[in-house]
Specification:
5-stranded mixed beta sheet, 7 strands, mainly beta, two-stranded antiparallel sheet
C-alpha cells in the first residue's frame, strides 16, 4: 500500500475509533470550507479474496469507518477523503468518501503523529 511519511513520523491520518473521528472533526473546525471541501486521510482499498477491502496506510484493516450512508463505489476510487463541506444533500460533514487517487485531485490532506 501507500507509504506516505513526513518528517517527525507524521503520515496521512488514520481514524481508528469514534474518538479519533471526533479529534479530526475538532481539528477541522475553523478551516475555510470552500478551500478545503474534502481532505485526504490515510485509507485505501485493494482487492483481496475477490472483494475490495479498506486498509490504513500502515496496512491495518479498517475496524471503524464513517463512510457516507449512500456511498456508491465508482470502481476506480481507491483513496479516502474526509468530507469537510458536503457537495450535495446526501453527504454530511465528517463522513468519508472514496475518491480517485490520481494527481488530478489536488486536495489537501490531514496528517497525524502517533504519540510516543
Amino acid at each position: 500500500g501507500a507509504k506516505m511519511k513526513w518528517p517527525g513520523g507524521a503520515s496521512l491520518a488514520t481514524i481508528e475509533s469514534s474518538s479519533d473521528q471526533a479529534a479530526v472533526m475538532t481539528a477541522m473546525r475553523g478551516v475555510d470550507l470552500n478551500k478545503y471541501p474534502q481532505v485526504y486521510i490515510g485509507g485505501f482499498n485493494r482487492f483481496y479474496g475477490g472483494k475490495k477491502n479498506w486498509y490504513w496506510i500502515d496496512g491495518t484493516p479498517f475496524k471503524f469507518d464513517n463512510f457516507e450512508s449512500n456511498l456508491v463505489d465508482a470502481g476506480n476510487e481507491d483513496c479516502l477523503a474526509f468530507i469537510n463541506k458536503p457537495s450535495n444533500n446526501i453527504e454530511r460533514r465528517g463522513e468519508w468518501n472514496d475518491v480517485p487517487c490520481n494527481s488530478g485531485n489536488l486536495w489537501s490532506y490531514i496528517c497525524s503523529v502517533k504519540a510516543k
